[in-house]
TrEMBL record:
PROSITE patterns: GNK2
Signal peptide: 1-24
Keywords: Glycoprotein, Repeat, Secreted, Signal
Source organism of the structure: Aquilegia coerulea (Rocky mountain columbine)
CDD domains named among the record's database cross-references: Gnk2-like
Chain ranges of the Gnk2-homologous domain: 26-128, 134-239
Similarity section: Belongs to the cysteine-rich repeat secretory protein family.
The name this protein goes by in its record: Gnk2-homologous domain-containing protein
Length: 244
């Protein structure tokens, strides 16, 4: 996709990446909106900073926070979500880092989203809370293809669909599991939605993301689709943080 096809906050970005099991300090990706801007010291600027303070202070305790600050067109709407298996300390660190980074990456933009391995941060002057974000989407995949595993794509799709059925029925809209593919190989997976979504909207978001598998991760040893409302990841090695 050439850059001429990209529009603010509506992007489908393809790139290869050898996925790491550890939670990284660098963002996976970010998207800024250049269509709507605000001035430093303006009402929106103040509302956005208040929003960031609320998200940074409240998210680590529950793993999710949504809020709206302000009135009329100057309202800042936003959410932050931590991966369901990260610790409170890692959650707090990730959200704090995301807030600092988005300020640098998208200065004076009224809408933006940034993804880390451990968290997601999104804000906008338009109230998106409770709706599925079908525009902001990023593919990541292992550059290596699978070998010696029959019907890998179909098994991966079925596996992620079963995880979706678990996730949308859970309070955290989050699920992980593992599955044997043969006597040697195991498949590990994770799915998650932002908790502003209803359970059925979570299911639809994940179902739509899983439908991207042929475009994203055909026969790849690992892959993920990350969006503004939900994400999935699968690997042939364990990457979920175990709770001890």
């Amino acid at each position: 996709m050439s850059s001429s096809n990209l529009v603010p906050l509506s992007i489908l970005f393809f790139f290869t990446l050898l996925l790491q099991s550890a939670i990284g300090v660098d963002p996976l990706y970010h998207i800024c909106s250049s269509s709507f801007n605000y001035s430093s010291g303006s009402t929106y600027d103040k509302n956005l900073n208040t929003l960031f303070n609320q998200l940074g202070n409240k998210v680590p305790h529950t793993g999710f926070r949504q809020s709206s600050v302000g009135h009329t067109q100057e309202t800042a709407h936003g959410l932050a979500l931590c991966r369901g298996d990260v610790s409170t300390a890692d959650c707090k660190s990730c959200v704090s880092t995301a807030i600092a980074e988005i300020k640098k990456c998208c200065p004076n933009d009224k809408a933006a989203v940034i993804w880390y391995d451990a968290c997601l941060l999104r804000y906008s002057n338009v109230n998106f809370l409770g709706t599925i974000d079908s525009e902001n989407k990023v593919y990541l995949y292992n550059v290596q293809n699978v070998s010696g595993i029959e019907s890998f794509n179909g098994k991966t799709r079925d596996f992620l669909s079963r995880l979706t059925d678990k996730a949308y029925r859970s309070p955290k809209l989050f699920a992980t599991d593992e599955m044997s593919l043969n006597k040697i190989d195991k498949l590990y997976g994770l799915v998650q939605c932002t908790r502003d979504l209803s359970d059925l909207r979570c299911k639809k978001c994940l179902d739509d993301a899983i439908n991207e598998l042929p475009n994203c991760c055909d026969s790849k040893r690992g892959g993920r689709v990350i969006g503004g409302s939900c994400n999935f990841r699968y690997e042939l090695y364990p990457f979920v943080i175990s709770k001890k």
